[in-house]
Amino acid sequence: MHLLLLGVSHRTAPLDLRERLDFSSRDVGAAVEALVTQSSSAESVVLSTCNRSEIYVASGDPGQTREELVRFLGQYHDIPADAFVPHLFTFEDTAAVDHLFRVAAGLDSLVVGEPQILGQVKDAFNTAAERRCSGPLLNRLFHWSFAVGKRVRAETALGEGAISVSFAAVTLARKIFGRLAGRRVLVIGAGETSTLTAQHLRTHGASEIAVTSRTLAHAEALATEVGGHVVPWDDLQAGLASADIVVTATGSQRPILTRPLVESAIGRHRSGPLFIIDIAVPRDVDASVGEIEQVFLYNVDDLQGIVRENLSRREAEVTRAEVIIREEVARFTSWYRSRAAIPTVVALRQRFDSIRRSELQRLEGKLAGLPPDAKARVDEVTRIIVEKLLLEPTEQLKALPDEETQMVYTEAVRRLFGLRDDPVTEPVRPSAGGPDTEEDAG
Questions:
Q1: Strand 184-188 versus strand 208-212 pairing type
Q2: pLDDT tens across 123-158, in order?
Q3: CATH code for the structural domain at 2-155
């Protein structure tokens, strides 16, 4: 079984294509279920955020599965393959592990070190697990990635003062206006991103914050939290008219702020500019709004300059995090490679135990006079002897340095001990010191 990853991100695809390939604005659970039924992948997880859409699968035939995944992406999103295939990245096995660990640690984020991504990775896995679309390999991989993300945050300062996209948006507003005191801000949406943005705005001096959301109760809760006031959704135009800065981050699949709406809101005689920062994916603001005089429109891709500044300040912490990633990838790869030897290891154990039990049965007459506790002791001692005899060869077989050598050795063991060729499965106990306690089925 191989690991295969297909995806697009802010590093490989423009915003308009990421919007078209976005799963998060739809039912991710339904998508991962459809994926499992329509492809040869045995296990699947779909990770979809504002900056990436990635599909992780376990497959016996990566080449065939990749073709199926490309076909699935095109059909599911109704996009011709030639529109997105040039922007796809594909990773297999160790490269896929490395990528996921970097994502979970915040190293592949638009804003390096941002804290939200680890929770998004967990949510993606939980969605697949609840739909029974994950399995032993992806279970192990994703739980290991959670531990990697936690380790990076514990052992580096990458997450200290880490700026999210929300913080980057506020940083942009401060660059435009200098001090935010006296500026009127309208926050559209009351989800996690909007909440973080409003909190940052308040912290950095915004004195008047208005909040609007389709769900009035959510808008009221956020406005109370940041000391702002609510603008009813039906009064959105009036809220735009009185704002200096608009930050929007909803889950809408279509633009909320259209050109006619914004033109009507600001009128022909507005004295000051209107700055709109759209940090939603799909975008909340129609691109043509940026063509209106006195309107300055920014989206998530326009935050790249702030991102670069963030990265330069964190270079030392990034280096420390990269070391941790390499260590954990090596550990996972060692476990991953050892899975190939598991059927032979199990068959070898079964062979030795079969001989042990056969010999005990042959000596049953001679052991008949022993009391029950003595018989139990004989059974236990012989079992321990077998375990000790097999311990070193088992560990050596699982620790061979590469797949080719492991195949040669396992074949030699099977021939030497006459092990049967039919598949053998047995649960494998988690190794000591592993990053999680989840199942490690072979």
A1: parallel
A2: 999 999 999 999 889 999 999 999 999 999 999 988
A3: 3.30.460.30
